[in-house]
Amino acid sequence: MVFVALAACSSALLLFTSASFGSDWRFAGYNKQGKSELYQFFDADYIDRPAKDIARVWVKAVTVKNLDRYYEAHQKDVVEKAATKIATGYAPRFFLLATVRRGYADKSALNEAAATATGYEVIANAPTVQPITKIYFEIDCKGRRIRHLDGVVYDAKGDVVPQNPSRKVPNYSFIIPETNGDWLSQLVCP
Q1: Averaged over 66-72, what is the pLDDT?
Q2: Which of 37, 53, 55, 155 is placed for a possible disulfide with 64 were both Cys, Cβ 3.0 to 4.6 Å?
Q3: Residue 130 gets which letter from DSSP?
Q4: 83, exposed or middle or buried, with CB in 10 Å at 0-12, 13-18, 19+?
Q5: Cβ atoms within 10 A of the Cβ of 64, count?
Q6: What's residue 170's pLDDT?
Q7: Torsion of the alpha carbons at 32, 95, 147 and 25, rounded to the nearest 10
Q8: 2.40.128, 2.40.50, 3.40.50, 3.30.70: which CATH number matches 23-188?
């Protein structure tokens, strides 16, 4: 799904206000899990900072298939909301990261990717879009480490997959450069 029409129509749209549903899911990267392509979003409204160099944040992953399915059913609404955001000068912070910007051959490819991600953010914030995971991460910003504190996995029907109740919180892992963990840390660390 490409939101090429967004750039063309964004200047013609009036600015609308929209209701907030409690979370503001922002684009945080992409991944592949088996044959599924996933886009990840962090909850920008609820970043907890229990200590100076610690950030805790929820991240949800949604399959491209679910994002595209929602887009097909709500195309006009998604395009209008995304174009409105772009018209105000909004761009996902993800695309402002130096490591991400270097991955694009030119500015137009970067702008197209940012417009597409803006549309995906609109979709990710829709209450009926089914994620496949929601994970609560803790990031040691100074030590460049990350760990998974809690989370939930959903099956194809949207039902919660039971987890092992005796699961212990894992130790920190060092953040690998130019990965989703690296991008997430750059987005949420002060």
Answers
A1: 95
A2: 37
A3: P
A4: buried
A5: 15
A6: 82
A7: -90
A8: 2.40.128
Confidence of residue 168 (pLDDT cuts 50, 70, 90): confident
The identity of residue 113, as a single letter, is A
Amino acid identity of residue 105, one-letter, is: A
Residue with structure tokens 């450069």? Answer: 177
User: What's the chain's average pLDDT?
Assistant: 87
Q: Distance between CA atoms of 75 and 58, rounded to whole angstroms?
A: 27
CB-count burial class (<10 Å; 0-12, 13-18, 19+) for 73: exposed
pLDDT in tens, 5-16: 443 333 333 333
State mean pLDDT over 92-113. 93
Domain boundaries in the chain? 23-188
Residues 115 and 4: beta-carbon distance below 8 Å: yes
Q: Which residue is listed with tokens 């996995």?
A: 153
